[in-house]
Design brief:
Elements lengths: L8 H4 L22 H22 L1 H14 L5 H18 L1 H11 L1 H19 L6 H25 L1 H4 L4 H43 L1 H5 L16 H4 L2 H5 L1 H13 L5 H13 L7 H21 L7 H18 L7 H20 L1 H43 L3 H17 L8 E6 L3 E3 L4 E3 L5 E6 L11 E3 L1
Antiparallel strand pairs: 1-4, 2-3, 4-5
Helix pairs in contact: 2-7, 2-9, 3-4, 3-9, 3-14, 4-7, 4-18, 5-6, 5-7, 5-18, 6-7, 6-9, 7-18, 9-15, 9-17, 13-18, 13-19, 15-17, 16-17, 16-19, 18-19
Length: 471
């Protein structure tokens, strides 16, 4: 492949091909810096922070809803109160598949603005029905989750339009937004509950969520794509589903997340039941938020090194998260041990989250990344929704968090091992070329021959650039 400067494939052959492409310095290429790029990063940071800061801090609201449902005579107040928050998380991930498609047609800014509007409206409406669980499922669970999905997917996809060389670290910074907000939000919500009670607290959260509509105006892609007529045949990027490596990766991640949201929902109640006395149950969540933010920055930076296998790094993160989750019941004898476990869980949670976007770009390329991220999050919706509810059912019968937490740690541990299947799949990627000579094959690339096929053998990274043939 030849750049405008005349650089040939031979000069690039020692560099692994990321996202199925070699950097080009043409109009519309990610600038990797500049005022607009950094503002986009900042907007994505706040969108992630607002959306997931509220969801990850749901444990504070959980205690309020639990008491309300219990007073109304609910037979399963734990599971029903947990379902409000898990529906928000699950819907966010489920609708992300649609958000990826919608982004391709109405644009990044419109999709994000619409998401902010729906999320803030859902939160506002939930303030009028705090004692009606079915209404909360719709307003807090479905509406807030729907809005979150429409804002979250484009907030990640837009980064690929502005960054390439630093995509890993930028993803780390952006996803650290949810960590920083997770640190602060439990205290903000607690203070609001003390001063204004649950109804006005939800209205304040609605006002915070409405800020997403402001940040949406920053999300203008570097290169505008042509407007397309919406038809079934071109609604979905079917190439994503033909990518076997992506399918295996997405399936394993979905299966690994059955217990992911359980500690976030039940941590405050777990601390309350395990450590009677003046112990702040928000501290473990605070620790997870702090180290998750640090982990996203550290592993986002590490992931940008050419020789780093991002999928392998994510496997390690899943394995450690699973083991630490299963160790949570052992912390009942020592609050300091609980803090240590929480710090470790947060660190590797940051690794897992920071690598989602970069791996999607690696496997599916720039064109398929938005829908790849969306479909991935969509497949994760079911386990994220069901997991906390099932944990609540088990707790109501056992009156102990030991079994729920041990079961929550098994899926990520098994998933970490299952992800080795991605290394057994050879992928073929198509890449656009400029005029020039392919020094690897020795053949002239004519103006009408704009594509080559790249056989990407992940088992031998040094040979990725060698297997070229003109189509």
């Amino acid at each position: 492949m030849v750049e405008d400067s005349g650089t040939t494939l031979l000069e690039h052959k020692q560099k692994p091909i990321l996202n199925g492409s070699i950097p080009r310095k043409e109009h519309g290429e990610p600038p990797d810096g500049g005022t607009k790029a950094w503002l986009v990063m900042l907007g994505s940071f706040f969108c992630n922070g607002i959306l997931f800061g509220v969801i990850n801090s749901y444990g504070v609201l959980y205690t309020e809803f639990h008491e309300i449902f219990k007073k109304k005579g609910s037979l399963n107040p734990s599971g029903e109160a947990a379902l409000v928050g898990s529906l928000a998380m699950g819907t966010t991930f489920l609708i992300s598949a649609v958000a990826g498609v919608l982004t391709d047609f109405i644009g990044l800014r419109r999709t994000t603005f619409l998401g902010g509007f729906i999320a803030s409206s859902g939160m506002f409406l939930s303030s009028f029905c705090v004692d009606n669980k079915l209404a909360l499922y719709v307003t807090f669970g479905v509406m807030y989750g729907l809005g979150g999905a429409l804002a979250y997917t484009p907030s990640l996809a837009v980064l690929g339009h502005y960054f390439k060389k630093y995509l890993g670290i930028v993803n780390g910074i952006v996803t650290a937004g949810s960590s920083i907000f997770t640190i602060a939000m439990p205290y903000v919500i607690t203070e609001c509950l003390k001063r204004f009670k649950i109804e006005h607290t939800l209205r304040i959260l609605a006002l915070i969520a409405s800020l997403i509509m402001v940040f949406a105006f920053l999300f203008k892609p570097v290169r505008e794509t042509e407007r397309r007529e919406i038809k079934w045949r071109n609604t979905f990027n079917v190439e994503v589903f033909r990518n076997k490596k992506y399918l295996v990766w997405a399936t394993v991640i979905a299966g690994s997340l059955f217990g992911y949201f359980v500690p976030y929902v039940y941590m405050l109640d777990f601390v309350k039941t395990s450590f009677p006395g003046p112990v702040d149950g928000k501290i473990p969540v605070l620790c997870i938020g702090i180290t998750s933010g640090i982990g996203r920055l550290i592993f986002g930076y590490i992931a940008d090194f050419p020789k780093i296998n991002r999928i392998l790094l994510q496997q390690v993160a899943f394995f450690i998260i699973g083991i630490l989750t299963m160790l949570l019941p052992s912390s009942t004898s020592s609050f300091y041990w609980l803090i240590a476990i929480s710090l470790g869980m947060g660190l590797f949670d940051g690794c897992f989250i920071a690598l989602l976007g970069p791996i999607a770009f690696d496997i599916c390329g720039n064109e398929g990344a938005a829908q790849a991220i969306g479909f991935l999050l969509g497949t994760c919706s079911v386990p994220l929704t069901i997991g906390p509810y099932v944990a609540g059912l088990i707790y109501e019968k056992q009156k102990s968090y030991t079994i729920p937490l041990i079961l929550a740690g098994i899926p990520p541990t098994v998933g970490a091992v299952a992800m080795f299947l991605t290394r057994c799949i050879r992928t073929t990627k198509n890449e656009t070329l400029k005029n020039g000579t392919c020094k690897v094959t020795g053949r002239l690339i004519e103006p009408h021959q704009r594509s080559i096929r790249v056989d990407d053998n992940e088992n031998d990274a040094n040979k990725r650039c060698y297997n070229y043939s003109v189509l």
